[in-house]
């Protein structure tokens, strides 16, 4: 199957790939379990990444103060969507420290050469149930109706990668809209046209520049590099003990017998070593991975008494609801819990959109331009 990318079908993109969700459906759990759990430590020479927020690790001083967080993700992944509250919280806790770099790697969950489903309606029904099961664990919103299973992750990944040139805030909002296309609207942004339409009205976004950049050879090369990097996982994730997570994050086997990171996975690293936190995990595991590597950079990890209500280390200052909604533009109920203080909810002017698993709250300015709530343009005259 060749996705609608506007490029020749013969153009190489990294080879055939079975999507993570379809692979789970086919039950590839026969791989050996070497009992590697949670987050792990090893040493490695950092790669030469394209950083989301700044230069790559090789451009930083060779000290423990140079901390890089690599987020292996996909705009259309349901587990990554469910991890948004925790990742937003972690990014908020680390915000403002220029010794920390956060970089996103787009792994291409739905690849060009995935075989088309013999019965698209049946596959869509199965996938909708699969997303429903995931949202029961993550409490993330899900669409009232899913129109189809995404044909390709390439268009959304190209748009998300291209948006990075317009600044971190714009890139964050663009990625969020792409996620919401499938998990709120039920129409995955799986073509160039739908991906660009999904992000229309993002504040500060130069839409023309985004369209040009997303179709450029330079951005294609960067996403191809992401695709390849995701298929060079660290050894610790080749097998992961289940623990308490419904998605422990062992690396996924690819059709050619290799592996790629499960989504999402965070790789936290310095010049001295790394920790990896795969799959769907509580906030405290990410805190531990960061603070164990950042001696002298960030607060030491805390282990409060089990009955203590004290927040973990790296807890960002909760925001007043109105401030949080202004900053993030949209919030789910789990994000409201992670990111805001205990004052009254919803803030004045917030627009509620009901989904099949709880509401999505929109800032009124976002509601005016968001595809879920913005008025449809008038039909063109014939």
In short:
By secondary structure, this protein is of the alpha+beta class.
Can you put this structure into words, describing what you see?
This protein is an alpha+beta fold and 382 residues long. Helix content is 33%, strand content 11%. The chain contains 13 helices and 9 strands. It has helices at residues 20-25, 78-82, 84-94, 120-138, 154-163, 168-183, 192-198, 207-214, 217-230, 283-293, 321-328, 333-339, 364-367, and strands at residues 67-73, 100-106, 252-253, 259-260, 265-269, 274-278, 330-332, 351-355, 358-362. The strands form 3 sheets. The protein has a 4-stranded mixed β-sheet with strand order 2-1-5-6, with helices on both faces. A hairpin with a 5-residue loop joins strand 3 (252-253) and strand 4 (259-260). The longest helix has 19 residues, at 120-138. The protein is globular and about 50 Å long.
Shape: globular
Q: What is the typical, i.e. mean, pLDDT?
A: 82
- Order of strands, main sheet, comes to 2-1-5-6
User: Alpha-carbon distance between the termini?
Assistant: 34 Å
Which spans have pLDDT < 50 for at least 5 consecutive residues? 1-19, 22-65, 300-304, 378-382
């Amino acid at each position: 199957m060749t996705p609608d990318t506007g490029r020749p079908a013969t153009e190489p993109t990294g080879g055939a790939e079975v999507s993570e969700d379809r692979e789970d459906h086919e039950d590839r759990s026969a791989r050996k379990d070497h009992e590697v759990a949670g987050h792990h430590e090893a040493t490695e020479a950092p790669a030469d990444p394209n950083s989301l927020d700044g230069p790559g690790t090789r451009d930083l001083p060779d000290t423990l103060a140079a901390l890089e967080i690599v987020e292996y993700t996909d705009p259309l992944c349901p587990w990554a969507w469910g991890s948004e509250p925790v990742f937003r919280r972690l990014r908020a806790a680390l915000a403002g420290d220029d010794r920390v770099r956060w970089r996103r790697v787009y792994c291409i969950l739905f690849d060009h050469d995935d075989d088309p489903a013999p019965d698209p309606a049946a596959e869509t029904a199965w996938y909708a149930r699969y997303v429903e099961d995931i949202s029961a664990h993550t409490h993330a919103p899900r669409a009232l109706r899913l129109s189809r299973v995404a044909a390709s992750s390439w268009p959304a990944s190209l748009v998300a990668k291209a948006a990075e040139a317009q600044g971190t805030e714009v890139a964050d909002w663009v990625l969020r809209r792409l996620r919401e296309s499938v998990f709120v609207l039920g129409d995955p942004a799986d073509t160039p046209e739908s991906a660009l339409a999904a992000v229309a009205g993002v504040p500060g976004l130069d839409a023309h520049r985004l369209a040009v950049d997303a179709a450029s050879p330079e951005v294609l090369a960067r996403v191809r590099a992401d695709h390849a990097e995701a298929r060079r996982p660290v050894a610790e994730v080749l097998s992961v003990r289940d623990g308490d997570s419904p998605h422990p994050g062992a690396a996924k086997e690819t059709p050619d017998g290799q592996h790629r990171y499960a989504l999402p996975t965070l790789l936290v690293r310095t010049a001295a070593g790394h920790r990896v936190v795969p799959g769907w995990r509580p906030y405290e595991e990410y805190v531990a991975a960061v603070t164990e590597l950042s001696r002298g950079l960030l607060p030491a990890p805390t282990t409060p008494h089990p009955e203590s209500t004290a927040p973990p280390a790296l807890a960002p200052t909760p925001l007043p609801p109105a401030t949080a909604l202004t900053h993030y533009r949209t919030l789910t109920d789990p994000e409201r819990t992670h990111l805001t203080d205990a004052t009254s909810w919803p803030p004045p002017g917030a627009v509620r959109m009901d989904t099949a698993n709880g509401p999505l709250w929109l800032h009124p300015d976002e509601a005016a331009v968001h595809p879920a709530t913005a008025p449809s343009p008038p039909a063109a005259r014939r």
